[in-house]
């Protein structure tokens, strides 16, 4: 057998020694154990061999020996590495996640189809499919909204009803707006009714009712308030005050309201999950997104027991993210999966990280008192890395984060919302988000300060824009700041 010229001799001898030990057990091995380890099973062993960690090598060989009693490992590390890179039994999902994160959904689908054809029996995990389908439908919805095409927007909602979940409440508002523009006011009111029936947070209900007030008749508005009170009795006092204010704006006296039944409104039940969306969209989701689905195998992992945990944790703490992923391939316990998720996140593999954190979060208390919180923090960061801002924001609102975690999360949310508002030409909202970000963090990145200046400029607040660009130019004069000032002064001189 040819020796691997690039591998230390110690590695080859250790592997041969392990093979001899393995041979001693073959005579008593049951006939049913005929399979050999696949590429995922061998990655950890190769990693330990490459790093000359003999204790870990022996431990991993004992595991493989127990799992694959009839397998005889090659004595040559090169041959072993060739087995581990064989494409027949595993799929590298990172290129798929990378396409999703670049919004290349067609490319991601193509890679999934290619992997399915190459590896019979393989299927993408539930979280990957959920994120892919959700992002595809959101992109289709956004495009339809930009075209003011209510039918196309509704088609996207019917494909993915989760677009109208409470964590994406803006979609429901925009759907109602499209209905109204198309002359379908009853459908718009129905959409608002679905929101107040399902989304019980006061911060969701109040703006929805205010929007509905612009298009609903007085009777319809009264019914909407009754629905909202029934769905969330704890909001009654605030809703009474809001209804009185809205009725006063219509020249109507406030009505005494205690319960929906007392007002003669029909009883309202929360919508049950449906297999297919209704003819008109309604927001049929809890106020907090359910933890993302994880691979089925992850839910069955023991809490501890993977002998690699010490090595994996040490690599993570040292910032060796790539080594951490190599050492934690095919996690066999929840604690290793948790460490691997952080390593994946730090390598910008947000999709893989999200799947790992989502599997750990429901069982995190078994690992430590803070692990559930920190796993949910990892989920939030992953959502934000995937530009799923509202999902991250909703989960953050439902999680008891530390002060530092909350500052980090809320800063990123405000940053992303500001950029999106600017692209949507909502310049007042852009400036409001950036002002809140500056107040929260104590400062504002230069690129965001420039964005705020242009938000002021495009919003007609020329003096504020002038002050912003002048401040930035005085701190550091660049072509960008000088050009902004020149353009602004030209505009102001022409007024």
Q: Any chance you could write out the topology, listing elements then pairs?
A:
Blueprint: H1 9-23, H2 39-50, H3 54-67, H4 77-84, H5 94-101, H6 105-118, H7 126-146, H8 150-159, H9 169-181, H10 185-198, H11 202-213, H12 218-231, H13 236-249, H14 309-317, H15 321-327, H16 334-346, H17 350-360, H18 371-385, H19 389-397, H20 403-423, H21 427-441, H22 446-458, H23 462-475, H24 479-493
Describe this structure in words.
The protein is mainly α. Among the domains are: 9-84, no CATH class; 94-124; 131-249, Serine Threonine Protein Phosphatase 5, Tetratricopeptide repeat (Alpha Horseshoe); 288-401. Helices cover 63% and strands 0% of the residues. The chain has helices spanning 9-23, 39-50, 54-67, 77-84, 94-101, 105-118, 126-146, 150-159, 169-181, 185-198, 202-213, 218-231, 236-249, 309-317, 321-327, 334-346, 350-360, 371-385, 389-397, 403-423, 427-441, 446-458, 462-475, 479-493. Helix 11 (202-213) runs parallel beside helix 13. The radius of gyration is 29 Å and the shape is globular. Residues 1-34 and 257-298 have low confidence and may be disordered.
């Amino acid at each position: 057998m040819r020796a691997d010229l690039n591998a230390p001799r110690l590695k080859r001898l250790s592997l041969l020694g392990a093979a001899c030990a393995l041979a001693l057990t073959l005579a008593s091995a049951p006939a049913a154990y005929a399979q050999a380890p696949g590429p995922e099973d061998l990655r950890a062993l190769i990693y330990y061999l490459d790093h000359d960690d003999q204790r870990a090598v022996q431990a991993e060989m004992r595991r493989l020996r127990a799992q694959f009693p009839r397998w005889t490992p090659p004595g040559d590390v090169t041959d072993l590495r060739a087995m581990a890179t064989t494409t027949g039994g595993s799929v590298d999902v990172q290129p798929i996640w990378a396409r999703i994160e670049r919004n290349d959904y067609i490319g991601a689908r193509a890679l999934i189809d290619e992997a399915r054809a190459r590896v019979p029996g393989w299927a993408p995990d539930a979280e990957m499919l959920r994120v892919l389908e959700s992002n595809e439908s959101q992109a289709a919805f956004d495009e339809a909204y930009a075209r003011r095409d209510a039918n196309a927007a509704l088609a996207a909602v019917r494909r993915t009803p989760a677009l109208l979940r409470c964590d994406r409440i803006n979609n429901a508002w925009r759907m109602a707006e499209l209905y109204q523009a198309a002359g379908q006011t009853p459908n718009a009111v129905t959409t608002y009714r679905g929101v107040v029936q399902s989304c019980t947070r006061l911060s969701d209900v109040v703006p929805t009712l205010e929007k509905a007030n612009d298009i609903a008749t007085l009777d319809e508005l009264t019914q909407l308030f009754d629905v909202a009170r029934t769905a969330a009795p704890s909001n009654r006092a605030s809703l009474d005050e809001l209804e009185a204010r809205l009725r006063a704006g219509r020249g109507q006296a406030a009505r005494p309201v205690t319960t929906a039944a007392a007002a003669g409104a029909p009883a309202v039940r929360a919508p049950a999950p449906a297999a297919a969306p209704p003819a008109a969209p309604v927001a049929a989701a809890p106020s907090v997104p359910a933890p993302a689905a994880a691979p089925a195998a992850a839910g069955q992992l023991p809490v501890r027991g993977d002998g690699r945990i010490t090595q994996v944790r040490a690599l993570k703490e040292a910032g060796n993210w790539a080594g951490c992923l190599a050492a934690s391939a095919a996690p066999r316990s929840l604690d290793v999966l948790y460490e691997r998720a952080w390593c994946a996140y730090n390598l910008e593999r947000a999709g893989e990280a999200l799947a790992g954190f989502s599997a750990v979060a429901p069982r995190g208390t078994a690992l430590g008192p803070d692990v559930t919180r920190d796993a949910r923090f990892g989920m939030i960061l992953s959502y934000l890395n995937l530009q799923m801002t509202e999902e991250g924001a909703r989960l953050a609102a439902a999680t008891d984060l530390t002060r530092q975690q909350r500052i980090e999360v809320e800063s990123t949310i405000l940053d992303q919302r500001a950029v999106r508002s600017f692209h949507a030409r909502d310049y007042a909202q852009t400036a409001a988000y950036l002002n809140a970000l500056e107040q929260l963090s104590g400062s504002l990145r230069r690129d965001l300060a420039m964005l705020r200046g242009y938000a002021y400029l495009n919003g007609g607040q020329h003096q504020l824009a002038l002050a912003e660009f002048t401040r930035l130019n005085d701190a550091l004069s660049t072509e960008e700041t000088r050009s902004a000032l020149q353009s602004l002064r030209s505009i102001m001189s022409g007024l």
